[in-house]
């Protein structure tokens, strides 16, 4: 459960991105495609070469959605309702089970790496914990309507 | 047997060469206990784990973190025989320590994030890819002797 302190830390971290949201999104996706090649299967229609416009564009979308989620942490289910529908009925990204893992968890791992790269020591254990919890909550909401 | 390309071996070695086993080990274990508090169940005799500050400063956590990462170093010295290297430790974690192997994956992901925060941009996507593969292989090897 996200505590008040968690929410504060998440907002602070997001604030520290200072306009680099698009790069953060693109880098997160690129790392995910590099470290977890099976995630590319969801983007057969994309140019997945490094720095492609499509990766940048999609990274920007993903980060914008996370930004919306962060503004609505008290009501993630509602705020992400449309995206939840999209992922469940349209995109149908495999939610995994105990094994293999939900692709969104892999995205979360890569986002954390990008934040850690950028923030260094400022990516404290407390911040790490808050972001991890938040991304788990987002993934859970996006998987809510699968069945 | 896992295949490692020359590039992967080089990426792993170049990061490892700069790692303080004591610092990174302590930090990774502390973060495991902070980000995934249920993992504290394995360390009930470690004393004060009541807050992130307590965990980070706890000398038993630091010492054990160093032990764990030193053992990880053995994998890196023996990339071509990781299963053999961890055979006894795997049996130990199952028979004596009763650790759910899922925890190895959690620690592996945390280690990657710790490395990212220490090395910043040097922890490139290719680097992350090699290290995610390594932590995955180690986790798998540690789970192998479970019954």
TrEMBL record, chain A:
Pfam families per UniProt: Globin (PF00042)
All copies of domain Globin, residue ranges: 1-147
One annotated Gene Ontology cellular component of this protein: haptoglobin-hemoglobin complex
InterPro entries cross-referenced by the UniProt entry: Globin, Globin-like_sf, Globin/Proto, Hemoglobin_a-typ, Hemoglobin_oxygen_transport, Hemoglobin_pi
Range of residues in the leader sequence: none
The keyword RNA-binding is annotated on this UniProt entry: no
Source taxon at top rank: Eukaryota
Molecular function GO labels: haptoglobin binding; heme binding; iron ion binding; organic acid binding; oxygen binding; oxygen carrier activity; peroxidase activity
The keyword Iron belongs to this UniProt entry's keyword annotation: yes
Key words of the record: Heme, Iron, Metal-binding, Oxygen transport, Transport
A biological-process GO annotation: hydrogen peroxide catabolic process
Family statement: Belongs to the globin family.
Subunit details: Heterotetramer of two alpha-D chains and two beta chains.
Protein's job: Involved in oxygen transport from the lung to the various peripheral tissues.
Name of this protein: HBAD protein
Gene source species: Origma solitaria
Gene that this polypeptide is encoded by: Hbad
From TrEMBL, chain B:
Protein name as it appears in the record: Hemoglobin subunit beta
PROSITE patterns named among the record's database cross-references: GLOBIN
Record-linked Gene3D superfamilies: Globins (1.10.490.10)
Function in brief: Involved in oxygen transport from the lung to the various peripheral tissues.
Domain of life where this protein originates: Eukaryota
CDD domains: Hb-beta-like (cd08925)
Family: Belongs to the globin family.
One Gene Ontology term, aspect cellular component: hemoglobin complex
Organism: Origma solitaria
GO-annotated molecular function: haptoglobin binding; heme binding; metal ion binding; organic acid binding; oxygen binding; oxygen carrier activity; peroxidase activity
Any Pfam family the entry gives: Globin
Subunit: Heterotetramer of two alpha chains and two beta chains.
Keyword flag Heme: yes
UniProt-listed GO biological process terms: hydrogen peroxide catabolic process
Alphabetized InterPro entries for the sequence: Globin, Globin-like_sf, Globin/Proto, Hemoglobin_b, Hemoglobin_oxygen_transport
Alphabetical keyword list: Heme, Iron, Metal-binding, Oxygen transport, Transport
Residues in Globin domain copies: 3-147
